[in-house]
Amino acid sequence: xxxxxxxxxxGRHRIKGGYYMVCAAAxxxxxxxxxxxxxxxxxxxxxxxxxxxxxxxxxxxxDTADQLSFEGTIVAEKGDMYNxxxxxxxxxxxxxxxxxxxxAERMSIELVHHVSLSARNLxxxxxxxxx
Length: 131
Known about the structure:
six-stranded mixed sheet, 6 strands, single chain, alpha/beta, globular
């Protein structure tokens, strides 16, 4: 078993003159094919006028992961990193980073995707910034 921080960002598309993104990060212990333990989950919203760059995405992920009181390798989908090669994105993070590989890592990404999407939808409704 090993510790990871699974991350996902929802909302990298234009809405009402800007980009309202929500990043979710979960500290988990996983085995090859199962999530063994969910330790903590955090979300962080971000509003910006311009389209998010890769550097913006990396910063949002790092800021969200920094809210967790657990260590672990950050695991993300390649699409969240604009399909850049691992060596490009890996060099931009201050901690260990990788793209999902195992079944458990895929399941972890799915978990945080549901968290980020649900949180974003709720915040958009509550803040009345619907498209």
